[in-house]
Design a protein that fits this description.
mainly alpha
Length: about 160
């Protein structure tokens, strides 16, 4: 008796799944390559350290444009899970030196807040729309995620607030 269902091996080898796998591997290799470059650079030529120092100097010289640049850098750091503590302290230091203690700390606080806000929103949207298939595959793979999904649907999100 023949069934119309496709075998799991046929589903896994569709062109979209191969393309998705290729994209994931490519992005992973780019990230690993970047990390290796930064590690090797910090032990040899220190171009990365000079770039960061130049960026902070530029922010000190151009505080108005520096705020918007810092917000963008902070948002990108938030998306890529780079801890914000160093950036937050650096913002306070740079803006306080450029504009004085009171105004500088206030401007640094505003820049960090909006950078974190934009980065968090962007990370949510990336997870919600671009990486939705990845997340749904994780929920199928691990029982705890399935239980959370069922609980969320049963309790109408009130349990998680």
């Amino acid at each position: 008796m023949a069934t119309s269902a496709t075998a799991p091996s046929e589903v896994a080898t569709t062109p979209t799944s191969k393309r998705s796998l290729l994209i994931k591997i490519s992005v992973g290799l780019i990230i690993v390559g970047f990390i290796i470059y930064v590690i090797v650079d910090l032990t040899t030529t220190q171009h990365t350290r000079r770039i960061i120092a130049d960026f902070l100097d530029w922010i000190g010289e151009n505080p108005a444009a520096g705020v918007f640049a810092f917000i963008g850098v902070y948002a990108m750091a938030n998306i890529f899970f780079i801890p914000g503590t160093i950036l937050t302290l650096g913002a306070g230091f740079v803006f306080a030196n450029a504009l004085g203690l009171g105004v500088g700390i206030f401007l640094a606080t505003v820049a960090v807040f909006f950078g974190a806000l934009l980065g968090s929103c962007a990370a949510f949207l990336i997870g919600r729309y671009l990486l939705r298939d990845c997340v749904s595959n994780l929920t199928k793979k691990y029982v705890i995620f399935e239980a959370i999904d069922v609980g969320e649907n049963l309790w109408d999100n009130s349990l998680f607030l």
